Amino acid sequence: MEAKYVYLFTEGDPRDKMLLGGKGAGLSAMTQLGLPVPPGFIITTQACREYFDAGERFPDELMVQVRAAMADVERQMGRRFGDPERPLLVSVRSGAAISMPGMMDTILNLGLNDETVTGLARMSGSERFAWDSYRRFISLFGSIGLGIDGEHFHSAMETMKRDKKARYDTDLTADDLRELVNIYKLIVRGNYGRPIPPDPYEQLALAVRAVFASWNGKRCVDYRREFKITLEMANGTAANVQAMVFGNLGPRSATGVAFTRDPGTGENVFFGDFLMNAQGEDIVAGIRTPRPIIELKHIMPDVYEELLRVRERLERHFKEVQDIEFTVEEGRLWMLQTRNAKMNAAAAVRTSVDMVRDNVLTKEEAVLRLQPDQLVQLMYRRIDPNFSEPPVASGIGASPGAASGRVVFTADDAEREGKAGKKVILLREQTKPEDVHGFFHAQGILTAVGGKTSHAAVVARSIGKPCVSGCGDIRINNLEKSAYIGEHKVDEGTVLTIDGGSGRVWLGEVPMREPEMSEEFSLVLSWADELRGLSVLANADTPHDAHTARRFGAEGIGLCRTERMFNAPDRLPIFQELILSDSRETREAALSRLLPLQKQDFKEILRVMEGLPVTFRLLDPPLHEFLPSEEEIQWDIKNIERFRSAIEELSNLPNIIRAIDPHLESVLSLDGTIVKNLAKLRAFEMDRRAAERKLETLRKVRALREVNPMLGHRGVRLGITYPDIYEMQVQGILEAAGELIKDGVDVRVEIMVPQVCTAQELRWVQGIITKVEKRVEERLGVKVPYKLGTMIEVVRACMRAGRLAEMAHFFSFGTNDLTQATFSFSREDAENKFLPLYNERRILQDNPFEILDVKGVGRLMMITVEWGRKTRPDLKLGICGEHGGEPQAIEFCHIIGLDYVSCSPYRVPIARLAAAQAALKEKLGTLKPPK
Ligand code: PEP
Ligand code: MG
C-alpha cells in the first residue's frame, strides 16, 4: 500500500501526536469536535523523516497527495490556490509531537504573488489589507523560506513608518504598503539573487522544506538537548497547511492568544490578550500592546461568549488547561491552535484540585497530569520568575533553592553570624566535613570548585540548603577574607544571592518567591498516597532532617548515615583522637565520649520517627575524610615555626627600640609585658608540643593515605578492622532504642551494613551485634527487636544476593556506589572529565548518576531481587541512592517490585507522586517493561 503522508484535519487521529505532531493533532481534534477551524491538512512527521533519509528529497507521492488535499480545502473555502480572482491563501506551520515554543517556524499568507494580491484586494474590498498581507508574506517567506536576515525587512518597515510619520503599522496606507512591498522585493533580490517564485505550489514546497529544516536547526537541536527530548518522544516535525483567515481585515477583525485558566496561579479565569485588526504574529512580536481578553466581551460580545463555550468544551475534552490561538475575521471566530498549557508547579497543583472539584478530572487523572520533577519548585524558595537581571557568575546548580546573605569565608564565621541572627552565604574554595556546622547556620553555600557530588553539594542537598558549586569565576583569598567574582571584589559582609537550581550568582539581594506547600499540594499528595504501592522513606541523618522528612510525609528513614554525626564541631576532635590514637586506653576513652553523643542523636531520631522504621547505617567513609589534609597540617606546622621566630624577634624588640632612640621606650610605654608572656609560652614549650602533635597527625594522615579510597578501606572493611567503632555504634543504637522502649515509645530499629560483598562480612557484623545485644539487654532489662540488613552497592553483593538474604532481612540498593561499580567510573572524575562529552556524542544518553541506568545497574537490581527473594520470600527491598528520589527510577523500582524508595527529605513529596503515577500506569497498562 502507498504511504499516506497527508491527512486532512477531518481524517487524522488526534491521539496520534507522533505522526501528526501536537499542532496537527490539536487542529484535528478541534475540527472533529465541530469547533470552527479553518480547513487544512497535515504533512506528517513520517514525511519529514523520509525527506531527511533521502538526502532532503520529498517522498515521491508527497506533492500529489498535497494537491489532492488542497483541492479539498479549496472546495470548502470556495477559493482556489493561485487563482488570480478568488485566491486561497494558506499558512504553513511546523509542529512536532512535543511542543517546542518558538523553536520552529511559521509562514503566513502563502499563495500571494503580483496577480493574486489584486484578487485578494477585490475579494476583501480592501486594497490596504491586500498589500498588508503581501508585505507580511514577503518578509516571513524571505526570512524563513529563503534564509534572509529578518532585520532587513524590519528596518525597511521602520524607515517607512518614520518617513510617513506613522506611529503604528496600521497607520500606513495601501499606497505606503505597496511601496513597502517593492522595497521588500528588492531586499529579496539583493539577498537571495532571485525573486520569490510566483507559483504557489513552488512557494509551498519551499515553505515545507523550511519547516522540515527547522527541525534540524541549531535552535531546535539545542532545545531538544536541554529538555531531554528523545527520538522516542518526538521524531521529526509535521507541517500544517491551513486556509488563512484574517484578523487584519478591518475593525471587525482581531487575533488573540489565551489560556483557559491563569497559567501563573491556576485560577479558574479566562486569561489572555487580543489585538484588533492584526495577525497572530503581531501579538508575539509585541508591535502593539495587546488588550486583556475580558475587553473583548464589550467589543464583540457574541464572539466572547462563543470563546467561553470553546474554552469549556476544550477543557472537558482534553482534561487539561489549554493554550489557544484564535482569529476573528469580520466578526466570525476561528480557532487556530490548541495545546496543553505550560504552567508553573503551583498552577498545575491548583488546577488539578479545581478540576477534580468540577468533575473534569478524576483523582487518578489529577495525579497523573502532574510532573513530579516540576514540584521541586514548590519545596524551595526561588528567584522571582519576573527577575531578569543577568548574574555575575554561574556555576553548577548543586542543591536547589535560592538564598541571599552576607558573605563569610569560614564555617566558624557562618556559625557565629548565623547564631547572631544574620543571614550568611558561606563562600569556600571547597568544603570539608569539618565545615558542616557552618552549613547549618548559612542560608546557602557557594564553592569555587567541585561538582554535583562534591562534599558541599551532597551535604547541602541532604539538609535542603541551596548550593552552587564549581563556580569557576571565583578566586578566593582566605587570608584576606575577600574574593573576586569575575572582576567584582567581594569582601566579608558583601551581600550575594545564589540560585542552587540554575547555578547562578548575583551581587546584592534579588527578589524571591517563598515555597508553597499549600493545602492543595497536600491534598493532591494525599490522593497520591492512596494510589501508590511503594513506601516512601527519607535519607535523614539528624533529628532536624528527621523532622523535615516527617513533615513532608516520609514513612520512616531508609538511610541514616551515622558518620555525619561525627562531623559536628563538638565531636570531630573526639573522633579524630580515636583515629589518631595508637593505644587501647586512648581509643576506649574517645569511644566512651562519643557513645553518649551518638546515643542522644539516635534517641531523638527514633522519637521523631515513632512508629516508623529507622535504618541506621554503620560507619562507611574512609577515615582520612575525618582528618585535615596534608597541606593543611603542613601549613599549621609552618605557622608554628613562624611563631617561634616571631617570639625571638619580639624578645629583641626593646633592644631594637633603644637603638633607634632611647626616648622611644618611655613614649611607647613599653613595659615588656607581652614580651615576657610570650617568653613564658616559649618556656612551657607549647609550640614544640603543638608541632609534635601536628607531625604525629601528619604521620597518621600519610599512613591512612590510599591510592583509591572509594575502593579501599571503607564500609564494612573498616568495621572489621576497627570493630570497636561498630560496637560503639551498635551499642548507641540499641541503648537508645531500649531506653525509649522503657519509656513506652514505639521504635522500629534497622541496622544496615555498608559496602558488603560477601556473606562472611555480614556474619561478622552479626557477631558484633549479638555480643552488644546481650550486654544491652542485661543492662536495661529489655529486649530490643531489630532487623539486620545490607546495602547492595557492590556488584559481588548482587551476585551473592541469595546467600546474603540468609542473614539479611532487608536489602537497600545504594545506587550511587552501585553505578560507580557497574560502570567502573569514579563519579567525580566522570562528571568532571568525560561524561558531558559522552552525553553530547550520545555515547551515553544520560548521566547514570542522575538517571538510573536501567539496562546495566537496573539489570543487576532485577537479578538481586529475584535471587534474594528466592532465599527469603519476605525480604524487604528498597533503594537509598540518589536515584530513589528521581521519578523514572521510582517507576523502575515499582516495576521490579521493590517495597520502598528512600530519598532526601525535600524529594519525599516528589517520590510520593512518582510512586502513585507508577502504580496508576501499571493499572492502565502503560508501564514500559524493562528491556
Ligand atoms: C549509595 O552508595 O548509593 C549510598 C546511598 O551510599 P553513599 O552515598 O553514602 O555512599
Ligand atoms: Mg554508598
What would your notes on this structure say?
With 931 residues, the chain is an alpha/beta fold. 48% of the residues lie in helices and 16% in strands. The chain is built from 37 helices and 33 strands. The strands form 7 sheets. Strands 14-24-23-16-17-18-19-15 form an 8-stranded mixed sheet. It has an 8-stranded parallel beta barrel with strand order 26-27-28-29-30-31-32-33, surrounded by 7 helices. The protein has a 5-stranded antiparallel sheet with strand order 1-2-7-5-6. It is globular. The relative contact order is 0.06. The structure holds phosphoenolpyruvate (PEP) and magnesium ion. The site of phosphoenolpyruvate (PEP) has 10 residues, from strand 27 and helix 33.
List the topology elements.
Blueprint: E1 6-8, H1 17-32, E2 40-43, H2 45-53, H3 62-77, E3 80-81, E4 87-88, E5 90-96, E6 106-110, H4 116-124, H5 127-145, H6 150-163, H7 174-192, H8 200-215, H9 218-226, E7 237-243, E8 254-259, E9 271-276, H10 280-285, E10 291-292, H11 296-299, H12 301-318, E11 322-329, E12 332-340, H13 345-357, H14 363-368, H15 376-379, E13 382-383, E14 393-394, E15 396-399, E16 402-408, H16 411-419, E17 424-428, H17 436-441, E18 444-447, H18 455-463, E19 467-469, E20 474-477, E21 482-485, E22 488-491, E23 495-499, E24 504-507, E25 512-513, H19 519-531, E26 535-539, H20 543-551, E27 557-561, H21 572-580, H22 584-608, E28 613-617, H23 630-651, H24 653-660, H25 664-667, H26 673-684, H27 686-704, H28 716-721, H29 723-742, E29 748-753, H30 759-780, E30 786-792, H31 795-799, H32 801-807, E31 810-813, H33 815-823, H34 827-840, H35 854-871, E32 876-879, H36 887-895, E33 900-903, H37 908-924
Parallel strand pairs: 3-4, 16-17, 17-18, 18-19, 26-27, 26-33, 27-28, 28-29, 29-30, 30-31, 31-32, 32-33
Antiparallel strand pairs: 1-2, 2-7, 5-6, 5-7, 8-9, 8-11, 9-10, 11-12, 13-25, 14-24, 15-19, 16-23, 20-21, 21-22, 23-24
